Amino acid sequence: MHTIKTTDYILREIKKLGIQHVFGVTGGAISTQIDAFSRSDIQFITTQHEQAAAMAADGYSRMNGYGVCMVTSGPGGTNTITGIASSYFDSVPILVITGQVSTFDLRTNKVRQRGFQEVDMVSVMKPFVKYSKLVTKAEDIPDELEKAVRISLEGRKGPVHLDIPMDVQQADIDGRSLDFFPKKKRKKVNVKKVIKMISRAKRPVLIVGNGCRNCLIDLSVLCETIRWPVLPSWGMLDFQSVYKVEQFGVYGNRGANFTAQNADLILSIGCRLDTRMTGSNPKQFAREAKKIIVDIDKNELTKGVVKADIAICSDAESFISSLLEKVRYQPRLKWFKQCKRWADKYKTKTSKSKILNPYSFLKVLSDECEDNVVIADTGSNMAQTYQTFKPKGRLFTAMGNSPMGYSICAAMGVGVLGHDVVSIIGDGGVQMNIQEFQTIKNYNIPMKVFIFSNEGYGLIRQFQDLYMKGRHIGTHEGVPDFEKIAKAYGLKSMTIKDPKKMVGQIKKALKMKQVIVNVIVDPISSVSPRAIFDKPIEEQHPYLPEKELLKNLIIKRWQ
To answer: Which CATH class for the 358-520 domain?
Structure first.
């Protein structure tokens, strides 16, 4: 019988997932596993904080198909939760391995802790992973590793977790080869009722979500076949189609919102239709439209947000392939042209003021970026990026959990793969993970970080202005000199603040392999347009004149 050390075995098998890099922070309980990298051609990337390791694995997975994070017990594991939650809510498959105290040190009664840095990581992880297991027998490692990875890739994808004690890491095991990828067959989906409803529609709209990410060719064929206006979720804004209108929702394009709201049929595939898209009151969303909702997660279909006339639990690939077998040419030319007119009329507006406007900056950055991977953070910089960017490459953010500090860490995960990556982040968000400047330097990661310095938490300030009479508590605490900080880490840096010099400076930054750019924007610039609480998404702030609003409504106005 051929035996192999547990830690070497794990690295050997995860290579089958296309893993070339693993992210983490070492510590006593994981040190044996980390030592195995000395005998592997997989590179261990040491981040400065475990949260950053989980977020880097998330970004890595979004571009490479899978990501792995390894950290020690106790605080090492608990520090990863924010990153893991981001993967869970956005359906990103990653494997998290935590070290644990040796099996003889595990608590056996109600005592709070027995071993040093012992934490019940299975209970901690359970709300944020598809599977979590403490592996107390070395011989169970092959089965548990195979099971965990398969679960992470089956159905709605997501993170999984294995907690491995130190003595289990040190053991030798039978090194059988694992199969992470069972043969997948497309399922046949009954689309008879769907075809019937489609044939009756006069103002149909196709909404595509990130669940369509793995079947882009079939999706493009469907778009070409039915030729409806296509509204991408923010997770699919980089989907390229001549039928794409714009993004819709609370911070969406006004024209796209008129498209969604005036529809008489919504076909939503692989999209959660959460309240950032529908508005705070889902009853207002596409209120005169029939709704066909296709989602791989049956719980999404029964969550009670948007009521479906036809609800189909299926992966996007199976549904689209089944629909393509039955659907015929379905253009609504007059309707499509109207939707395009709305989108063109209400494009995001830039500014020519003396103070740098974030929309003007992002318009130029969008024009100058080629096939860059662009990762937005959260808050106003994220909303403004999604309102402005016309991506030629991949564009994403951690939309579900939306933690500050995500984009810089996810960009590290993308950058080690060799992609030319751009991180867009706020002056508040960057300080959540500013220590990762050291990781960027250590591994010479090719990435450009654009920090929007608006002197605080801009989106929350806007909320305070709207609902709290301008009481800015906790949102204007001052910012450091980011150029000096970058210099302290040994990174190249520059500041952009003059609108007249902006274009040349952006071009210069994008030509650099690695740079931290401090973008000093107007501190009172706001996210515009945006839907106001309890208003339907076609009535965004700043409000249109009454006459203009009514002219754009085919449906009845919400009362």
So the answer is: alpha beta
